[in-house]
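Tokens as discussed.
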């Protein structure tokens, strides 16, 4: 999986063999096994990663309280400072990004979760290296970041024992501010954010993620997407590499659990014997993906190299397309994902069924939202005020014999779609055309897009279409949402200052944390626990302004 990258999104068996040192036969077996596990897909010759591989990096991110705690505070800091905000951890000689919130600017710094930079060359890395050497550095600025033209400033984050566990920093274009202005203007807010992260880490329940018997909490796993692969026990081909399957299952055992698991807990989560679980854990430790301490095991940031850093920059269409392909193959009808843009929907991705009567629609096509099923489920998510404004400025024209031209009736249909969670439109956009759609929601429940299916009306009654297609369509939306969760929340375009365009009018990139609504955060200014440690030094800086 580490062979794939932005400069090599697709590889052949020969290229995989050359890059890994495997024989062509062995490379083929591993690639086909990864395809069986839905981590790669193939057109017969070339292989590319699928969003399913994001589950591996998510196992690291979801199991660490630091990531979840830092995310909210980085969201707030990025909005307040209008600069890209990241949290970094040290992995050997590299600083690895584990939280990334892009600035609401056109010229934002290009960093993804999983990005690795030489620690000595970054502000976050220098803070982390200083702490590793038992230093007491409270902040660092780097004027010549590896990405030319950028300045970075970072502060350390300590756990309850006073150990530096991360660094949180801001990345800005050098053209916008000098190093001195960066220190004067943004360092106080950055120090405060670091202090709040530390306070929240201190107050997190130690037993979070565990129940009696050492099992992970079911609600915790469900809220994180419950992504642990079950890898069905159906008959596998002769090519299937069972050891690869089991090794990846061990990594997935950490999803939504505590950061450290015992040998017994890994065995229970994977169904492996203690002896087998121990072999896989120790092998993963030797490869750098797991660290062991006093009978407990935890994932390292190196897991993010297994496709996460590459795929975490995927767009919503990239994530949705494989799921649409599966849906179309199952039901034999064309499917698409669209967003709302003013009074129209815009197709982001479409997969056509292999039939002569397939509809003539392509990516970028615009359709009137009010006369389409996808449009109605998107309009159904608008609050009352914006929906009133939308309908007021709408001119309802008869596009087909069944087109609704009454705004009262249209509002009733939109409210029906809101209440039932789906919309069916029969012969309103074009005579003989029927469509069904459901919403796609982000991690916090906001609707970011709609997924729909279309077919000709002579295929039977509309109710028969609903009964046959709604369950698999809802399942497809659920799978897309799960992929979005492990990749990070999809951000709709952030409106420019002064813009009155609705949030539903944009299309998002899967930059983790982007455009997440800020949580309400209280300022934590209590007396620091370590009166003479590095955290106390930070509190003095905060108190001095």
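Sequence:
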């Amino acid at each position: 999986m580490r062979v794939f990258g932005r400069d090599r999104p697709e590889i052949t068996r020969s290229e995989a063999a050359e890059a890994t040192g495997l024989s062509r036969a062995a490379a083929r077996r591993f690639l086909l096994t990864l395809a069986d596990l839905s981590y790669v897909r193939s057109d017969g010759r070339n292989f590319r990663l699928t969003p399913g591989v994001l589950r591996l990096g998510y196992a690291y991110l979801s199991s660490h309280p630091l990531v979840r705690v830092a995310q909210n505070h980085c969201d707030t800091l990025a909005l307040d400072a209008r600069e890209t905000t990241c949290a970094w951890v040290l992995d050997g000689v590299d600083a690895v990004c584990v939280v990334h919130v892009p600035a609401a600017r056109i010229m934002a710094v290009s960093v993804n979760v999983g990005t690795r930079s030489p620690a000595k060359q970054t502000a976050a890395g220098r803070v982390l290296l200083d702490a590793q050497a038992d230093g007491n550095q409270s902040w660092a600025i780097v004027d010549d970041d590896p990405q030319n033209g950028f300045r970075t400033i970072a502060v350390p984050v300590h756990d309850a024992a006073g150990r530096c566990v991360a660094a949180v920093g801001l990345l800005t274009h050098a053209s916008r501010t000098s190093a001195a202005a960066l220190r004067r203007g943004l360092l106080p807010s950055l120090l405060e954010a670091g202090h709040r992260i530390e306070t929240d880490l201190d107050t997190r329940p130690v037993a979070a993620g565990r129940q009696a018997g050492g099992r992970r909490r079911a609600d915790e796993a469900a809220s994180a997407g419950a992504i642990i692969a079950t890898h069905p026990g159906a008959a596998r081909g002769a090519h299937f590499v069972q050891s690869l399957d089991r090794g990846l299952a061990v990594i997935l055992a950490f999803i939504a659990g505590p950061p450290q698991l015992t040998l017994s807990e890994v065995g229970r989560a994977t169904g492996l014997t203690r002896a087998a679980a121990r072999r896989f854990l120790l092998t993963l430790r030797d490869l750098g993906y797991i660290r062991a301490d006093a009978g407990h095991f935890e994932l390292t940031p190196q897991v993010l190299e297994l496709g996460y850093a590459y795929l975490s920059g995927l767009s919503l269409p990239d994530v949705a397309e494989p799921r649409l392909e599966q849906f179309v193959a199952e039901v034999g009808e064309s499917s698409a994902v669209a967003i709302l843009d003013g009074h129209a929907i815009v197709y982001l991705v479409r997969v056509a069924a292999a039939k002569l009567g397939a509809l003539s629609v392509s990516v970028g096509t615009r359709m009137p939202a009010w006369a389409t099923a996808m449009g109605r489920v998107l309009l159904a998510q608008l609050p009352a005020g914006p929906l009133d404004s939308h309908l007021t400025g709408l001119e309802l024209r008869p596009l087909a014999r069944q087109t609704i031209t009454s705004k009262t009736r249209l509002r009733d249909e939109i409210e029906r779609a809101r209440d039932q969670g789906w919309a069916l439109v029969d012969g309103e956009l074009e005579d003989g055309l029927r469509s069904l759609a459901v919403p796609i929601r982000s991690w916090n429940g906001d609707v970011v897009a709609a997924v729909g299916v279309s077919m000709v009306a002579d295929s039977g009654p509309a109710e028969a279409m609903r009964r046959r297609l709604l369950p698999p369509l809802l399942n497809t939306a659920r799978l897309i949402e799960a992929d979005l969760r492990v990749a990070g929340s999809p951000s709709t375009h952030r409106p420019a200052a002064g813009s009155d365009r609705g949030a539903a009018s944009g299309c998002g990139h899967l930059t983790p944390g982007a455009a997440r609504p800020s949580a309400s955060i209280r300022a934590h200014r209590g007396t620091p626990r370590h009166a003479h440690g590095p955290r106390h030094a930070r509190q003095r800086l905060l108190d001095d302004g």
